[in-house]
Amino acid sequence: MRITLVGSRHFGVTTLNMLREHHVTLVRVVVHDGEDRLAAAARAAGIEVVVQANPKLVTAAEIAPGTELIVTAHSHARVSKEALAVAKLGGIGYHPSLLPRHRGIAAVEWTIKEGDPIAGGSIYHLADRMDAGAIAAQDWVFVKKGETARDLWERALAPLGLRLLAQVIDYGKVNGSLPAKPQDEQFATKAPRQALIPRSGNQIPQS
C-alpha cells in the first residue's frame, strides 16, 4: 500500500515509525513546517518531504502520485476534496474520542472537563466537516481518577491511536477497502479549544 502521511510533531513521527514497520510504502510526507520534527525524521529515512503552500490546506498537488491512502497524524490542515480524490482509498485520521462525541481540537481536554469515566479513539474517514466522516475503527479506555488530559493522552490514547491506525491499514492491505460506519449525529458534541489549552509544542495532538 502506497501512503502519503500528512502530519507534524511527536505523534507524526511515531505514526511514521509505525507505518514503516507495517510494510507499507511511504511515498511522501506532507508538513506545514519544513523544520518540524516529522520533516526531519522523514528526510533521515529517505522519504520525500513536501511543505504545504497553505498551512491550513492540503492540495491535490501535494499528495504523491500513485497514493492509495492518505493518513493524517497531528495535522490541523483540511485535506481538500481534490486531494482525497487522487488517493484510491481516500484519507483517514485518528481522533482521540469516541466520535461523534467531542468533535474538535480539544477532545482530550473536554473528556477530562466533562468528567467522562470512559475515553476512546476513532479512526475516521476524512470529510468536508471536521471529525464527521464515517468510522473505520474505534476502541475505548477507562479514565483514571485525577488524570490530566496529558496523562490520559500519553498513557492510553496515543498508543490506542497507533494500534487502531495499524489495524485499519492492515485491513485495507488485505481487502482493498476500508470499513466505514456513518456517525450518529444525534450524539455529536463539540470540543472547541479551551482558554487554558497550552499553545506550545506540548499541546496534545489531535487529528
Write a brief structural summary.
Helix content is 29%, strand content 22%.
H and E order: EHEHEEEEHEHEEH
What is the count of helical runs? Answer: 5
Assess the beta-strand content as a share of residues: 15-25%
Mean pLDDT: 94
The spatial strand order of the largest sheet comes to 3-2-1-5-7-8-9
How many strands appear in the DSSP assignment?
9
Give the overall silhouette. Answer: globular
Rg: 16 Å
Share of helix, binned:
25-40%
| Ends distance | 21 Å
Q: Uncertain regions: pLDDT < 50 for 5+ in a row?
A: 196-203
Secondary structure category? alpha/beta
**Oligomeric form:** single chain
Q: Characterize the biggest β-sheet.
A: 7 strands, mixed
Secondary-structure map:
Elements: E1 2-7, H1 9-21, E2 25-31, H2 37-44, E3 49-51, E4 57-58, E5 69-73, E6 78-79, H3 81-86, E7 91-95, H4 107-113, E8 118-125, E9 135-142, H5 149-175
Parallel strand pairs: 1-2, 1-5, 2-3, 4-6, 5-7
Antiparallel strand pairs: 7-8, 8-9
